[in-house]
Amino acid sequence: MWNVEEFTESAGITVEELSAYVAESLRGEVPVLRRTPPRELADRLGLRDLIVKGGMTPESYRVFLRGFLAEGTRLHHPAFLAHQTATPDFPAALADFVHGVINNPMNIYEMGASAATVEFEVLRWMLEKVGFPAGGGVLTHGGSLANLTALLAARARAVPEAWDEGVPGDLVILASPSAHYSISRAASILGLGQRAVVPLETDELGRIDPSRLPDISGRRVMALVAAACATGTGLYDDLRAIGEWCREHGVWFHVDGAHGASALLSDRHAHLLDGLGLADSVIWDAHKMLRTSALAAAVLVRREGDLDAAFKQEASYLFYGDQGFDQIVRTVECTKAELGLKVFLNLAWRGERGLGEYVASRYDTAHRFWELARERPGFTLPYEPESNIVCFRYGDGDQAAIRERLMSDGTFYLTSTELAGVRHLRITVMAPATDDATLTALLDEIEALSG
Ligand SMILES: Cc1ncc(COP(=O)(O)O)c(C=O)c1O
To answer: What are the residue ranges in the chain where pLDDT is below 50?
Structure first.
């Protein structure tokens, strides 16, 4: 039974606790993350008893929630500089709450007409932004699934019979070795195997070199994949030059814009995506730079029919008659959350302009880090950042050990990656609260720890 009074009280507690949590995170006076071992944490939160005995009340829920939040990772914290996961804005959080209550899995229209319609309109807006006015799209649970879906559409174009007959042995995908791992995973999932992923020539930073694209005569190329921007470095491939080559050679051009497509909303940064309109497919994650919670990723194709061709299935309880408004024919998922609502509410609250200003400010702050670090001896910065991702080294020592020390007391949370075989520290500026003072404190701390 749904007890309305208990729900109202518990929802109120949730809002109070989350508001306090976000405010505390924004001030940055608490650790950005904690790494209590799972057994100890389970005891501290009383999980075992709650699972077996139940009986949670609004009061005990408050205690649990407070402990749960305190032991997690704070993405609103200025020192959160790690993964490309959105610092959620509250309109999107409201959408998650609404979804949790109404649960309209709208992959078939009749299971949620309003949620499905919101998704259609969000997609229409995204399609216009990427330059596919006659295109089609679908929202899916994450960029990895979005890449898989786009490549499935590319496979259907290259080998329409593959769905029934399987994949011919000579089909290849061209991609930079630094492409997100979901691309090579998709190759294996699609039945091509790793051997079908042909590495493209790149510069020393992993950007595809358009002057050294391969001779493809005699080869069956399913797609070429470019990054906008690359996960490791945050650098954009030259989409125009690569796109023109793909047009000339009749190759499906897929752009992985999971992280960087949101720069389309910033007048000062949209040029980084010049040539995007030449693509056959693009993916764009809202749960990275459009500030929704995980997950909400768009698969966008230039020709609507290409997405419809990606999947063919028989299930008489779902697929029959005119599927006109049913997104289920375009996704791996059968049941799907109301992903469009969270993108929509962020747009409805902030507008394109507000989200564009957010993207621009995070890209600018990352650039500022680069400027500040360059002025200090001991820091090496292999490239000028184009997005909100920056790689760097301090000294010649073990960079992973520096990261470990920064994280051990929850002062800063950052990641690391290899560039040309050398491990670098890596920051991604996601949180709106990260400012010059945060960056200066990080640089000071790295010097102090290594001194
Ligand atoms: C360029 C790129 N593509 C795809 C993905 C995968 O997205 P997801 O984590 O939503 O599956 C990422 C994740 O960081 C990414 O950076």
So the answer is: none
